[in-house]
Design goal:
The chain is of the alpha/beta class and about 280 residues long. It is built from ten helices and eleven strands. GO terms for molecular function: metal ion binding; molybdate ion binding; tungstate binding.
Length: about 280
């Protein structure tokens, strides 16, 4: 009798189980639809992810400009790869799927043109910058380059000259003054100017060579001196959309957007000299 008393409850249990399964199925369907919706823009366009490789000295300004571009182009998302221009150029030579390359020197871009990775007529000169010597705060003590030879200046941070344009410019200036061999013995090398700045800010270097624009957001490093521009080659930033770009149309739109007044103001505020027209 006890068995027959429990038997009628089974259909109810089965019905309840089916209801739970249907509810879970509906929830899963809802989540799937939500993800699909996130993968589409409000205008129904497929999202485009642009990969921008740019010199480390451009990081803050490029990201600010990129946010404005994304606001006006809802189907585009920008992913960044910041570093030494030489290293970024080498990545392109190895087939990196870069949509826009902005270098802190002409030479890495010229190499890409020579290898057919960038078309010569697509290269646009964007900005100019200045090389400076910095020290940990609060007050600088170095007023001229030969003071880097002082015994109390033990470590000098320099970008790796083979891959970091700022390091190449620094070595060139020091060679011009006949100081490179002695300063080189004190050198600690950074993979880009951001790392050089970090060495100085942390006190792990007594001085370092970075761009003038790198000091814009630094509260721990101070300016020692601006390097005479006649001691090194011009510091110029060319940009181009590589031949192998996955999204050349959107990348070209971003490059054109960087020449608009509102974006020029961002770079000028950071200390860059904006080039109005490519030569």
């Amino acid at each position: 009798m006890a068995g027959r008393g429990t038997f009628p409850k089974r259909p109810i249990m089965i019905t309840a189980l089916l209801a739970v399964l249907l509810l879970l199925s509906a929830c899963a369907s809802g989540r799937s639809s939500g993800n699909d919706a996130q993968d589409m823009t409000s205008g129904g366009e497929e999202p485009v992810e642009l990969l921008v490789s740019a010199a480390a000295s451009l990081k803050d300004s490029m990201e600010e400009a990129g946010r404005l571009f994304e606001e006006q182009h809802s189907h585009v998302r920008i992913r960044y790869n910041f570093g030494g221009s030489g290293s970024l150029g080498q990545q392109l030579e190895q087939g990196a799927p870069v949509d826009l390359f902005v270098s802190a020197a002409v030479e890495p871009m010229d190499r890409l043109v020579d290898k057919g990775i960038v078309k010569a007529d697509s290269v646009q000169l964007m900005f100019r910058n200045s090389l400076v010597l910095i020290e940990p705060g609060p007050k600088p003590s170095i007023k001229q380059l030969d003071e880097l030879l002082r015994p109390d200046v033990r470590i000098v941070a320099v970008g790796q000259p083979d891959t970091v344009p700022a390091g190449e410019y620094a070595a060139e200036a020091l060679q011009h003054e006949g100081l490179w061999d002695e300063v080189e013995s004190k050198a600690v090398y950074g993979k880009d100017v951001s790392q050089v700045l970090a060495y100085v800010e942390s006190g792990n270097a007594d001085a370092g060579f970075v761009y003038k624009t790198d000091l814009t957001h630094s509260s721990k490093a101070v300016l020692s001196m601006e390097i005479n521009q006649g001691l090194h080659q011009p510091i110029e930033y060319p940009a181009a959309v590589p031949v192998q770009a996955k999204h050349p149309e959107e990348a070209s739109e971003l490059l054109a957007f960087m020449k608009t007044p509102e974006v020029k103001a961002i770079f000028q505020k950071a200390g860059f000299d904006v080039v109005e027209e490519s030569p």
